[in-house]
Amino acid sequence: MSTTTLDGASRPRTARPLPGTLRLGVERARYEIRAFFRERDAIIFIFAYPIIMLAIFATVFGQDGAEVGDGVPFAQYFLPGMIATGVLLSSFQSLAISIPVERDEGGLKRLGGTPLPPASYFLGKVGQVLVVSVVQVALLLAVAALAFDVTLPDDAARWGTFAWVFVLGVAAGAICGVGFSSLPRSGRSASAVVTPVVLVLQFISGVFFTFYELPTWMQQVASVFPLKWMAQGMRSVFLPESAASLEPAGTWEHGMTAAVLAAWLVVGLVVGVRTFRWRRRDDG
């Protein structure tokens, strides 16, 4: 392209530079958030599932004032696991299923042909997961406090722990979801591949049962994966300090929680960078 000056000379038009990767990531996140909230069935499932499960388990196991360990009400004990599994659903499961669908429908192929940096696309996905997870957890905490008389923390240190466990959990789950999204062969098979993985992790990670009562070998397997550590980190926020004696190590292991979640974040990033595909397998 060129422009003509008053003297008749032709000069090339200067192209406007593209916005930076971060700014494009923010704009992509806004788009992803709007698209998510248009999917009413996804909204109902992701937001309602942790609340419904908390209600079921607190009601079934908390009959006649039954408690866990040293006087911890069942609703109080199960809330951290529901927060952790909600983050898993909003991050890992959501992205591991939705990205293959986008790939099948050609959306990723079209994006791959635009100047949008891949990093901005991934930042957009992480931003969408973060916003959805914040809303989901806020609803869950409100229901737990109002309907089940769950006592929420009243000191800044516990909420500080909540913040870093939550942020690390969301980031690790989202990046692992992106990395896992290349495994399903098609969008139609994604749910069948991802859902069993999520269900198994929930059963072995102390989400549906008191973790200390699970078989030792199951605890050891669960310790490899991030959901167990998210749930344990959240228990350190919402349970009394005396409940740390119920954990396998007898402490909350905050250092190990941070290390495992950070390790899965790195693993997911490496796998995602090496395996992510913009096109279907049959599309070259």
UniProtKB/TrEMBL annotation:
Its main location: membrane. It is a multi-pass membrane protein. The chain crosses the membrane at residues 42-62, 74-101, 122-147, 159-180, 192-212, 256-276. Keywords: Antibiotic resistance, Cell membrane, Membrane, Transmembrane, Transmembrane helix, Transport. InterPro entries: ABC2_TM (IPR013525), ABC2_TM_bact-type (IPR047817), ABC_2_transport (IPR000412), Nod_factor_ABC_transporter (IPR051784). It holds the Pfam family ABC2_membrane. One of its GO terms (cellular component) is ATP-binding cassette (ABC) transporter complex. One of its GO terms (molecular function) is ABC-type transporter activity. Residues 41-279 form the ABC transmembrane type-2 domain. The keyword Secreted does not apply. GO terms for biological process: response to antibiotic. The keyword Membrane applies. It is found in: Cell membrane; Membrane. PANTHER family: NODULATION PROTEIN J. Belongs to the ABC-2 integral membrane protein family. This is Transport permease protein. It comes from Cellulomonas triticagri.
